[in-house]
Specification:
The protein has helices at 19-30, 45-54, 67-73, 79-84, 108-118, 135-144, 161-170, 172-178, 189-194, 221-225, 242-249, 259-274, 280-291; strands at 5-11, 34-40, 59-62, 76-77, 89-94, 100-105, 127-131, 153-157, 183-187, 203-206, 229-232, 254-256. By secondary structure, the protein is α/β, with parallel strands linked by helices. The two termini are 33 Å apart. The model has no long low-confidence stretch (mean pLDDT 94).
């Protein structure tokens, strides 16, 4: 009998992660056996990951706060991870001589874009506001710059504006390579609130961890009222977060949590490890149903 693939998700906190549930559903779909666990990182991520790989681990997912450490650990990166400079997926590769190398990928941005397209988010001609300038934002900006999407502008707002500016600067070369005409800018919350008239954004993407703390971004209500779509990268079993509820209360017609992104990025990780792409739509419906129990 074939041994199940030994996989895990690393992070802190990690007990809440539904990645084992998601990958268990993928395993059922594809007939590929997996043993997927959670590993809480309280010290050195690199040491914890290497111990896992030494014990037979063939791949892992990485969540906060370990994504930058994962980028530093891997031997080589996919273009997505290289652009994001953070890694959320690692695959162990072993050559004919038994030498092990670690391949890092970042599936967050492609997972988000796939979900936004599934939901019919108005991207063509849109001005997008990304709230937060952490690793998640680094992962989601590159796919949104694709010229075929037609996004006209992306603004990254962050409490520490230098972090947002760093992302804008790091994406300049990618913009040139793609021939992207999307305007990319950074600002602070205070700058955004001071603008008159209040800027209008068709799509709001909350890439902060504020919903996890039950807190809202420091945005003026006018920003929400002009938006057509809002998406929180955080998710809950009920499909509602403090951010999505606030958006709904202020009249945004299309509001979503991030479960679709989570399942979408997980599917890309599963495909990297196994060579088989799961059915994301079916898995998402099954995950939502399981969480609702």
């Amino acid at each position: 009998m074939t041994q199940p693939l030994k996989l895990a998700v690393f992070g802190n906190p990690i007990a809440h992660s539904i990645s084992p549930l998601v990958h268990g559903i993928f395993a059922q779909q594809t007939g590929i056996a997996v043993d997927y666990g959670r590993i809480k990182v309280e010290g050195d991520f690199a040491a914890a990951a290497q111990a896992f790989f030494n014990a037979g681990g063939v791949g892992c997912n990485v969540t906060v706060p370990c994504k930058p450490d994962a980028y530093d650990l891997v031997d080589c990166c996919t273009p997505s991870a290289q652009l994001a400079r953070v890694v959320n997926t690692i695959k162990v590769k072993t050559d004919d001589q038994g030498k092990r190398t670690l391949l890092g990928d970042n599936t967050d941005g492609r997972g988000l874009l796939t979900d936004l397209q599934r939901l019919g988010a108005p991207l063509a001609g849109a001005s997008i506001l990304i709230i937060g300038a952490g690793g998640a934002t680094r992962g989601i900006v590159p796919p949104l710059l694709a010229p075929e999407l037609g996004v006209t502008a992306i603004t990254i707002v962050n409490r520490t504006v230098s972090k947002a500016q760093a992302i804008v600067q790091d994406m300049a070369e990618l913009k040139a390579q793609l021939g992207a005409t999307t305007t990319l800018r950074a600002c602070s919350f205070d700058e955004l609130k001071a603008q008159r008239p209040s800027p209008r954004f068709a799509v709001l993407l909350n890439a902060t961890s504020l919903s996890l703390k039950g807190e809202l971004p420091d945005l003026a209500d006018e920003i929400y009222r002009h938006a057509a779509c809002a998406y929180d990268l955080f998710y809950t079993p009920q499909g509602r977060t403090i951010f999505t509820e606030h958006c709904t209360a202020l009249g945004i017609p299309a509001v979503y949590d991030g479960l679709g992104m989570l399942v979408g990025q997980a599917a890309l990780s599963f495909a990297l490890w196994t060579g088989v792409m799961p059915d994301v739509g079916a898995a998402l419906a099954q995950v939502r149903a399981q969480l609702g129990k």
